[in-house]
Amino acid sequence: MVVLGIDLGAKRIGLAVSDAEGRVAFPVGALDSRGRAHDVAALADVIRERGVGCVVIGLPIHMSGRRGPEAEAALRFAAALAKKAGVPVETLDERWTSREAERSLLEMGRSSKKRARGEVDAIAATLLLRSFLERRAASPRA
User: Given the DSSP bridges, would you call strands 2-7 and 12-18 parallel, antiparallel or unpaired?
Assistant: First the structure.
């Protein structure tokens, strides 16, 4: 089953998809955020076009483990997307994904001046999706 990973941001939404077996995550770019209703509709289109069977959205939890307003907004977004797209939408703690994405791009020689808009967002979504796929593979099936 294809899984879509989403890194929600105020300006852009990073996207990544898995292969059909749900083993490997690939960055697929970013969408410019234009408000929740528009973003949910655009993502529902992506889900339909790519044959996505499950979605994971990054949940921005504070380092203390506390959920702030951003996490609550992500949970509301996840519920709206699940309703609109008709597929399961899960959330996963995304602490460090954006920083890890920045570090990965720097290691590849991509300075901030050389990066395309949304590149960090897509890499962050890929890291989130990779974590989700690894956890799912490691958990025993019922």
Answer: antiparallel
Residue with tokens 């690894």: 134
For 1-142, where are the E strands, in sequence order? Answer: 2-7, 12-18, 25-32, 52-59, 89-93
CA dihedral 92, 79, 62, 66 (to 10 degrees): -110
Q: Which amino acid is at 99?
A: R
pLDDT digits (tens, 9 = 90+) for 17-37: 999 999 999 999 999 999 999
Ranges of H-type helices in 31-90: 36-50, 69-85
Give the list of residues 6+ apart from residue 130 with CB closer than 8 angstroms, or none. 5, 25
The topology (CATH level 3) of 2-137 is Nucleotidyltransferase; domain 5 (3.30.420)
- Amino acid at the residue 102: E
Q: Residue 73 and residue 8: Cα distance in Å, rounded?
A: 10
| pTM for this predicted structure | 0.85
